[in-house]
Amino acid sequence: MNLSVGRAGARCSSSNSNSSSSSSRLLPRPAPPPVPSARSILLKRRSPTAATAAAAVEAAVDPTFVPRDPAVRDGPWNAVDAGLVQTAQQQASALHGSSSSSSSSSSSVAASSAGVVLLGQTAEQLGELAKSMGQPAYRGKQLADGILKGAKRVADIKGLPASFITQLQEAGVKTGRSAVHHTVRAPDGTSKLLLQLGEGRLIEAVGIPAQDSSKERLTVCVSSQVGCPMRCTFCATGKGGFARNLTAHEIVDQVLAVSELHGTRASNVVFMGMGEPLLNLPNVVAAAALMQQQLGMSGRAITISTVGVPNAINRLAQHKLTATLAVSLHAPNQELRKQLVPSAAAYPLEALMQDCAAYFKATGRRVTFEYTLMSGTNDAPEHARDLLALLRHYKLMSHVNLIPWNPVGESEFERPSRARVDAFKAVLERAGLPVSVRTTRGLEAAAACGQLRNMHQKQGLSNPQQLT
Ligand code: SF4
């Protein structure tokens, strides 16, 4: 079900009336001297005219830059933003419909091989494709195995007769693997890959290796969209525009690419790269299923992160995934949250928290709350106490993950000191709330979402590589 502007508006007004009944808990505290006021935060941002002009210049310099829709403005969430969000959701459903129609039944795959993507198809479906092209069914398993073993082009798949390879190429069958445009590695082993999609656009994937009681782990952070329409103020991706949703196979491709770079299987996947996963829910759910069915991952090893999309958390619950839901909160009250996450105007904090509580009730799964700490903005002990009160009020089993903010070029925010992070954490810990601080990994690799892509897009791209 797609987001409707009308429904979002109705939800907004009903939640606002709720918030007034609990105003003593949710009203923002007066800002202490080092905390900028709402007005000062807004005033420090570039004017809409300057931002639009800058986007236009970047678009002219680099055709693959994802410019904002010219009607999009910095500042409060408005009808243009709501329209773009609705469009993104409609496109996600249509994209899933078109990609799943070629994978939902073996006969449909075989009926038309043109435009077929091998990644994401089962061996049985690929067997039907092979049979439709006059080949024995076991070729399907060869195709499926070849893709999972790293074949980037159809010609790279081992054991196929040359005539079948030619047949597949002439039919326009693709592996579904993207070209690796650029990789960077930080001294701690964290990697960041820029993958170039068929049309030339870039997406990011991050690999985070770790040693866990003599077991090697590799967490892969994947993107779910090209760009993002949510405009979160502290996010590099949110400073650009939105181009399109990613298909399920384009998401799985990121996991394969990072695994190949690190030479080990992915143990965990987090949807915390570019894009808002719940705007692309059908393809994200399909990708999570593929990771389990074809990459042998546990559902519990997958985390889906969201800043909140009306009516989406309940739809996620209906899929009965065992994945972890991580909600990006970033503020303990609606006023401050609206400044940091403009889309919160259409999905107030109370409505979001009620949906999280319902999700916990429906799934029994603990919800993780991500809280990015920005110095002087949301990192005071008072904010921690308000956060504690908020989580206690909704009585859902939760875990708080504190994320010291990663610098983004041209941003007004600052990374908090270690002392401020520790003080914030101590307030939650003393109250017995499970809390962790995300270790900043690969800062040198520009590991915050959108940063590496922005850097490269400003430098322009070489010609897109075509993989077949
Ligand atoms: S934080 Fe996530 S949802 Fe917000 S703009 Fe960035 S990518 Fe989009």
From TrEMBL:
Signal peptide: none annotated. It comes from the Eukaryota. Residues 13-28 have a biased composition (Low complexity). GO terms for biological process: rRNA base methylation; tRNA methylation. Residues 1-46 are annotated as: Disordered. The keyword Transferase applies. It is found in: Cytoplasm. PANTHER family: 23S RRNA METHYLTRANSFERASE, RADICAL SAM CORE DOMAIN-CONTAINING PROTEIN. This is Radical SAM core domain-containing protein. It comes from Tetradesmus obliquus. The lineage of its organism: Eukaryota, Viridiplantae, Chlorophyta, core chlorophytes, Chlorophyceae.
